[in-house]
């Protein structure tokens, strides 16, 4: 029996979160080890699955470009540590946490770009990649099991190295939002297709990408399974994800409008101190 369904980007994030939460490595670390979650809307959905707590969202891409949170005061954890299932704020102490982690532990990070070879990278708008960007990419060297949660809307048609070579915080003289570089992230990339396989549906086809009326960036799939009850369970799961909200601490989902004193590391931003071509964009 085959069934066809479409997922929006937000629904795809929820599917990926459910799949990662079910992985044996994650279940083991949840009960007996450490799980480090680096803030992003997909990983925030995973945090909700594991402990019921959304994450604070920092950088994001909106129609205005690569912008940050507009919240006056940070609320909630951007990076969260689950120590045997108990949440702790990890912000400001990632290096110490990294030294504590090992092969029984798990780190999950999102990405801004992935390629067909399984490579992934996240954008960095802060100098020297900020705290997460300087710690998370090296955790695999400690034996930590790393996963990258990224939807198919992040898929690049060319190798990731091409983008990393062209990007850089200091290479653009003008930017819609903060100018960013790319930081490669090691780990197993989990997309919606991987999520379906993890959840017990390895026989699937991606038959469409994109859409309109809120389905922009979404994906359309066909899944086949011999047992009707399995298809029924999948359709119920999809039904429950329909129209779910974007995950993240609510106050942090509001984007910045202009660069203030706490955005001094943002380079090239036309909404801040960069007056070049300002009339053309506003």
Sequence-ordered SSE layout with sheet pairings:
Blueprint: E1 2-7, H1 9-22, H2 24-32, E2 34-38, H3 41-51, E3 60-62, E4 65-67, E5 79-83, E6 86-89, H4 94-100, E7 106-110, E8 113-114, E9 120-124, H5 130-135, E10 145-149, H6 160-166, E11 181-184, E12 188-190, H7 192-198, E13 204-209, E14 219-224, H8 228-241, H9 278-281
Parallel strand pairs: 2-7, 7-10, 10-12
Antiparallel strand pairs: 1-14, 2-5, 3-4, 5-6, 8-9, 9-11, 13-14
Features:
282 residues; six-stranded mixed sheet; three-stranded antiparallel sheet; 9 helices; 14 strands; 22% strand; globular
Listing every helix as H and every strand as E from the N terminus to the C terminus, the arrangement reads EHHEHEEEEHEEEHEHEEHEEHH
Number of DSSP strand runs:
14
Biggest beta-sheet profile = 6 strands, mixed
How many angstroms does the end-to-end distance come to? 53 Å
The percentage helix is 25-40%
Briefly characterize the structure.
With 282 residues, the protein is an alpha+beta fold.
Report on the architecture of this protein.
The chain is α+β, with helices and mostly antiparallel strands. It has one domain (2-281). The protein is 28% helix and 22% strand. α1 runs parallel beside α7. The termini are far apart. 42% of the residues are buried.
């Amino acid at each position: 029996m085959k069934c066809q369904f479409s997922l929006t980007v937000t629904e795809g994030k929820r599917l990926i979160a459910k799949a990662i939460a079910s992985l044996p490595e994650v279940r083991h670390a949840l009960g007996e080890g450490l799980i480090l979650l680096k803030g992003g809307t997909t990983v925030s959905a995973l945090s909700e699955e594991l402990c019921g707590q959304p994450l604070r969202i920092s950088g994001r891409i909106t129609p205005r470009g690569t912008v940050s949170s507009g919240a006056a005061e940070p609320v909630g954890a951007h990076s969260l540590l689950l120590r045997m299932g108990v949440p702790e704020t990890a912000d400001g102490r990632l290096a110490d946490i990294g030294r504590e982690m090992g092969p029984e532990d798990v780190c999950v990070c999102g990405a801004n770009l992935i390629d067909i070879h399984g490579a992934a990278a996240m954008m960095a708008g802060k100098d020297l990649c900020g705290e997460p960007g300087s710690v998370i990419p090296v955790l695999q060297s400690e034996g930590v099991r790393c996963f990258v949660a990224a939807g198919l809307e992040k898929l690049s048609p060319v190798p990731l190295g091409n983008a990393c070579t062209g990007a850089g915080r200091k290479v653009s003289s003008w930017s819609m939002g903060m100018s960013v570089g790319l930081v490669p992230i090691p780990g197993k990339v989990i997309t919606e297709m991987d999520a379906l396989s993890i959840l017990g549906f390895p026989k699937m086809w991606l038959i469409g990408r994109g859409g309109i009326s809120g389905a922009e960036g979404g994906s359309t799939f066909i899944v086949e399974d011999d047992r009707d009850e399995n298809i029924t369970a999948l359709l119920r799961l999809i039904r429950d994800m329909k129209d779910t909200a974007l995950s993240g601490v609510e106050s942090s989902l509001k984007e910045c409008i202009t660069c203030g004193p706490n955005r001094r590391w943002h380079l090239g931003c036309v909404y801040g101190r960069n007056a070049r071509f300002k009339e053309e964009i506003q």
